[in-house]
TrEMBL record:
Organism: Streptomyces rhizosphaericola
Name of protein: Disulfide bond formation protein DsbA
Alphabetized SUPFAM superfamilies for the sequence: Thioredoxin-like
Length: 216
């Protein structure tokens, strides 16, 4: 039996995020809704938009390049430091605190917002110091690469991995959705995700986005 095969009826869902990404935030709120209506276990992992784009900075718009170089490293470094020093269980709550401040409250990825998020979940304030340090960059890159190895190179965040037909993980970018579905709608989207993951050779469904993230 694969380590990814559901045990005791609980289905594992691995979720890679960068707290800066509003679309990853939408998807993360959806999967937390799924936890309320389906027997799943979400396992949170960091990925990094800065790492994802570091080899193509010259090709990016100036504003986005500035964001990656000056704002993207700090939050993921703080999350990975919290994970390394305080365990996997802090990652999800810290992400929720960061995303709520960054996106719902409109604070953006500021040092003040990160400090506030640490306080919100009762983590030590001195974790903020890791925003400017490469202490755990090896672990950050390893976490990022784990997700990318599962899904492939031509994607962004979020990445989710769920059991396929044989129990081995199948990973996708997305689902990209706004606003985050709730209740039975969340369940139906989850059921559909498992369905397409069960089809060998399935890769993508896509359409043009006509609406921005709705934070509710």
């Amino acid at each position: 039996m694969s380590e990814n095969t559901p045990a005791n009826g609980t289905i594992p869902a691995d979720f890679w995020f960068d707290p800066l990404c509003p679309w990853a935030w939408m998807t993360s709120r959806w999967i937390l809704e799924v936890e309320k209506v389906r027997d799943i276990e979400v396992r949170w992992h960091v990925m990094s938009l800065a790492v994802l784009n570091e080899d193509k900075l010259d090709e990016l718009p100036e504003e986005y390049r500035d964001m990656l170089e000056n704002k993207a490293w700090g939050p993921v470094r703080v999350v990975i430091a919290a994970q390394q020093l305080h365990g996997d269980d802090v990652v999800g709550p810290l992400y929720t605190a960061l995303g709520t401040r960054f996106h719902n409250n409109g604070e953006g990825p500021t040092r003040e917002a990160v400090a506030g998020a640490l306080k919100d979940v009762g983590l030590p304030a001195d974790l903020l110091e890791y925003a400017d340090k490469d202490t755990y960059d090896t672990e950050l890159r390893a976490s990022h690469q784990e997700g990318i190895d599962k899904v492939g190179q031509e994607v962004g965040t979020p990445v989710i991995a769920v059991p396929g037909a044989d129990g081995e993980q199948v990973a996708f970018f997305g689902p990209v959705v706004t606003p985050a579905p709730k209740g039975e709608d969340a369940a139906k989207l989850w059921d559909g995700t498992l369905l397409v993951a069960s089809i060998p050779g399935f890769y993508e469904i896509k359409r043009t986005r006509t609406q921005g993230p709705i934070f509710d």
